[in-house]
Amino acid sequence: MSSNIAPAQVELTIPCQPEYVAVARLAMSGIASRMHFTYEQIEDLRLAVGELCTLSVEWANKNNRQEARIVLRTEISSNKLTVDILDTAGPRHCGEGTGRDVEEENLAQLLITLLVDEAEVIPQPDGTLVRMVKYVGQR
Amino acid sequence: MWASDRSWKLESNQANGWSEQEVAEELFRQYKKTGNSEYRERLVELHKNLVSYLAGKFANRGEPIEDLIQVGMIGLINAIDRFDPDRGIKFSTYATPTIVGEIRRYFRDKAWSLKVPRRLQELNQAASKIAEELTQKLGHPPTIREVAERLGATEEETIEAMELGSAYEAVSLDSTLEQEDDSTLSLGEFVGGVDVSLENIETHGDVKRAIERLDPREKAIIYYRFFRNMSQTEVAKRLGISQMHVSRLQQRALRKLREILTE
Question: Class of the A8-135 domain?
Answer without folding.
Answer: alpha beta
